[in-house]
Amino acid sequence: MTQKDEGLKRRIGVFGLSANIINIIIGAGIFALPAIIASKMGASSIIAYIFCGILIALIMLCFAEAGSKVTNTGGAYTYIETAFGDYAGFIGGIFSTGAMLFGDAAVSNALINLIASAYPIFENEYIRFLSIFILFFGLVCINVIGIKQGIV
Question: HSE-up of 110 (CA within 13 Å, CB side)?
Fold first, then answer.
């Protein structure tokens, strides 16, 4: 089943995509998660990290294989749609979007919690909301300006 490329511009490139993946891994996994895992698992938490790293590497290899077979843009949504049809692609896109929203919320709350440990004013719910709003509004502005500026 061959699909026609709809002409979306591929402007990120290999360097930008690699930097984005590293940024997501560091942002999600280096600030709050290690402390939580170490408090629950103790010394065996390093084994859990190595095991999870191997699992994530296997998932990344699956995405690389799918990316080499499907030439359209769209990521996981396009891969699922090509393999299983429109409805499965739609459901995959909904779950992917939901997971990203929950992940962004968790990381931004963890960031504000870390800042609040040094500056107690950030424990106020209005200050927390305003800080997160300003953070995401700034990211939206950078994205609206252009994807190339967001990478650099």
Answer: 16
Q: CA-to-CA distance for 139 and 152, rounded, in angstroms?
A: 13
Contact criterion met (CB below 8 Å) for 143 and 150: yes
Per DSSP, 11 falls in state: -
Q: What pLDDT sits at residue 58?
A: 92
27: Cβ contacts below 8 Å, ≥ 6 apart: 107
Residue 37 CB partners (closer than 8 Å, separation 6+)? 45, 48, 49
pLDDT at 143: 76
Inter-residue contact 30 to 22 (CB < 8 Å): no
- Nearby residues of 58 by Cβ (< 8 Å), 6 or more positions away: none
**pLDDT tens-place string over residues 4-57:** 556 556 666 777 777 777 776 666 566 667 777 888 888 888 898 889 889 988
Name the CA dihedral angle for 104, 94, 141, 113, rounded to a multiple of 10 degrees: -10
The two structure tokens encoding residue 10: 């591929």
Distance CA 109, CA 52 (A): 23
